[in-house]
Structure prediction request, 100 residues.
Amino acid sequence: MQLTLEFGGGLELLCNSVKVHNVDVDLEDVGEEKVSMKHLLSWVQTNLIKERPEMFMKGDSVRPGVLVLVNDCDWELSGQLDTTLNEKDVVVFISTLHGG
Prediction:
């Protein structure tokens, strides 16, 4: 499944300073017929986060202060971890907690 993942608000620093990732998540990697946000977060932690994963994840979800948008819609409106992703979806992660 092809997805576009975008990282902002400093989270891109955890992914070698790359903001946009066009990825192909293999359904065999997640062991399911469909990819949920819970599966995607695990995949991101394993495949994209290069340093300080604790700045992105807490348990099996994102840390408090990380805004998650799926196709420009807050994931809290679509089921958070249970949100089912579709081919060509765009998922954006933005840290709202950054220094100033």
Remarks:
- Residues 2-95 form a domain with the Ubiquitin-like (UB roll) fold (CATH 3.10.20.30).
